[in-house]
Design brief:
By secondary structure, the chain is of the alpha/beta class. The chain has two domains: 159 residues, Medium-chain alcohol dehydrogenases, catalytic domain (Quinone Oxidoreductase, Chain A, domain 1), CATH 3.90.180; 138 residues, NAD(P)-binding Rossmann-like Domain (Rossmann fold). The protein is built from ten helices and 15 strands. The strands form three sheets. Strands 3, 4, 5, 6, 7, 14 and 15 form a seven-stranded mixed β-sheet that branches. A six-stranded parallel β-sheet has the order 10-9-8-11-12-13, sandwiched between helices. It has a two-stranded antiparallel sheet with strand order 1-2. The longest helix is centred in the middle third of the chain and has 14 residues.
């Protein structure tokens, strides 16, 4: 099969397409013909040698996929050959085929289909886990979502609104309208406005209950300022850096929980449990029209280097999709 392979680290030019051995399923695994994958910030870091993939990825990047099951392990019971599926993986999705444990597989929503479903798994699992599972967001509460036009941000805005919460989203000026169309109640130009002042004006003394932060660095202090008593700040990325200052006295007085989290390095059992919960609670909302993947641009796998350049320019609103199409 064809796959994008990293033999060295550096700029987009190091992404090479090669022939590699086809995968074979273990007893509880399925083989998926990949229709499409999507880019994530971790892919860019992995390419630069700053975020190594797990050993099983064989330096084939890619953390999410959508495609069709073509082979089953001998103990697989939940799926059949021909099922359209999607999911997250530790790596290896930049390839024509991928092997996945059946417990981590999710059905593709009928209203979305292939290949667009590849824009769902990483963004929506991350956002759901951060906002609802760990962030405790519920109806009527305020969520503060950094980088609202990113893949995770566009998913988070939709999820928050679907459960009846209110949303403050930050973005650059030309992306504010996209956040507003997705349902954000307050949009803030983080470069030219004061996110803390805008958040306080919107929420009043109650403050924000859940903060979803993919930015890091200087946002840490601002997050604590907008947080209400008992709030949860969930850190899921460090696009702007991994170090920042925080007022520990205010953290204690407000009884704020600062939670750091990633999906990639979690045990398989935790990933499976999250996938199954999302399949039960979230996926029906795609068929009802309450949720949708936001796709900025679609590239072919042969143009993977151009796709990386596009994402590194921070030009995208939503996901950057890579069509693979095994053609087998």
């Amino acid at each position: 099969m064809r796959a994008v392979v990293l033999r060295t680290h550096g700029g987009p030019e190091v992404l090479a397409i090669e022939e590699v051995p086809d995968p074979s399923p273990g007893p509880t695994e399925v083989i998926v013909d990949v229709a499409a994958t999507a880019l994530n910030r971790a892919d860019l870091l992995q390419r630069r040698g700053l975020y190594p993939g797990p050993p099983m990825s064989h330096e084939i990047p890619g953390m999410e996929y959508a495609g069709t099951i073509v082979s089953l392990g001998e103990r697989v019971t939940q799926w059949s050959v021909g099922d359209p599926v999607m999911g997250i993986v530790g790596g290896g999705a930049y390839a024509e085929q991928i092997v996945v444990d059946e417990r981590q597989v999710m059905a593709v929503p009928e209203k979305i289909g292939l290949p667009d479903a590849a824009a769902i798994p990483e963004a929506f699992l991350t956002a759901f886990d951060a906002l609802v599972v760990q962030g405790g967001l519920t109806s009527g509460r305020w969520a503060f979502i950094h980088a609202g036009a990113s893949g995770v941000g566009t998913a988070a805005i939709q999820i928050a609104k679907a459960i009846g919460a209110r949303v403050i989203a930050t973005a650059s000026e030309h992306k504010l309208e996209a956040c507003r169309r997705l349902g954000a109640d307050v949009v803030v130009d983080y470069r030219n406005d004061d996110p803390v002042a805008r958040a306080k004006a919107a929420t009043g003394p109650g403050g924000v209950h859940t903060v979803l932060d993919v930015v890091g660095a200087d946002t840490l202090a601002a997050n604590l300022k907008v947080a209400g008593t008992g709030a949860r700040i969930v850190q899921v990325g460090t696009m702007a850096g991994g170090s920042g200052e925080i007022n520990l006295g205010a953290l204690m007085m407000k009884r704020v929980a600062l939670i750091g989290t990633v999906l990639r390095s979690r045990p398989a059992e935790e990933k499976a449990a999250l996938a199954q919960r999302v399949a039960l609670e979230l996926l029906p909302l795609f068929d009802s029209g309450e949720l949708r993947p936001v796709i900025d641009t679609t590239f072919a796998m042969d143009d993977i280097a151009v796709a990386h350049e596009h994402m590194e320019a921070n030009a995208n609103v939503g996901k950057v999709l890579i069509t693979v199409g095994a053609g087998r």
